[in-house]
Amino acid sequence: MAQPSTRQELIDYCKRKLGAPVLEINVADEQIEDLVDDAIQFFQERHFDGVYPTFYKYQITQDDIDRGRAGLGRSNIGLASTSVTTNIVGTATTFTYTENSNYLQVPPNIIGINKIFTFDGANTITNNMFSVKYQLFLNDVYYWGTTELLSYAMVKTYLEDLNFLLNTQKQIRFNKRQDRLYLDIDWGSVSPGQYIVIDCYSTLDPNDYSRVWNDSFIKPYLTSLIKRQWGQNMMKFTGVKLPGGVELNGRQMFDDAQREIDMLMEKMSNTYELPPLDMIG
Fold it and tell me: Based on the structure, what is the number of domains in the chain?
């Protein structure tokens, strides 16, 4: 069907685009399955419709705190050490480095993390009933209309400036190949049971969202991938004469498919991919 909604329907669609069932597509089923996985991975990592913004909530445990505070005379839970030996002025010298496991293991569907939000009540400017914001509403804003909006906006802006100066952003590190969110924070100020909210991007699973199989980029991209694999399989028969004088040309098929893929790659960069953010400062 022209609008595939499953993995197999997408494969059948691409084969028909290449000439099946009139022509025999000389690509193994295992090769096609690998190409489908490659196309979906590329779509999820580069296409703006391959991911969606979401928030994950996590509750800090005592084990997380123990791993974050490991070393420096404390416990050695999750502490990893690496030694390097070199020759300095004829003397073998060893350097030993340690690294604690101050990370949270995140699901593999998370491919990007923007920042984290904490809800620990430590910020007396904006949190809990003793905060400045709460007292502003309690004492100055009895009901709408008693306070000018300009004054209220100026006070709120001032409070946000104080919050920015007195409470630094939590430093994080993340790499999608590790599936680890490193929290470079003062673990001594964290208590078990506190929550963090992760502002992140998650991939779209085609098994849950069937419209991914019908994406206008995936269909021609996978078709070109199968065509290139077909040409690569037929290269070894280049120059072989078939009955009737027909000669196979796998190299031509491979080159044509590669040009189609290059055009789709350029289209991805210019049309479908989110532009990179410029460094300012």
Answer: 2
Residue ranges of the chain whose pLDDT lies below 50: 124-125, 281
**78 and 186 assigned to the same domain:** yes
- Same-domain pairing of 65 and 190: yes
DSSP conformation class of 245: S
Residues 68-122 have pLDDT tens digits of 888 766 677 878 889 999 999 889 999 999 888 899 999 999 999 998 987 655 5
How far apart CA 217 and CA 44 sit, in angstroms, is 12
* DSSP secondary structure string for all residues of 46-78: H-TTSEEEEEEEEE--HHHHHHHT-STTS--TT
Domain assignment present for 152: no
Q: How far apart are the first and last CA of the chain?
A: 52
What is the C-alpha separation between 1 and 8, in angstroms, rounded? 11
Q: Which range marks the domain in which residue 108 is found?
A: 53-123+167-203
Q: Name the CA dihedral angle for 114, 122, 183, 275, rounded to a multiple of 10 degrees.
A: 10
For residues 137 and 198, give the distance between their C-alpha atoms in angstroms, rounded to a whole number.
Answer: 29
Dump the DSSP string for 138-178. HHT-SSTTSS-HHHHHHHHHHHHHHHHHHSPPPEEEEETTT
Establish how many alpha carbons lie within 13 A of residue 161's alpha carbon, considering only the half-sphere containing its beta carbon.
6
Pairing, β 80-88 against β 91-99:
antiparallel
Q: In angstroms, how far is CA 215 from the centroid of its own chain? A: 20
**What CA–CA distance (Å, rounded) separates 36 from 42?**
10
Secondary structure letter of residue 269 according to DSSP: I
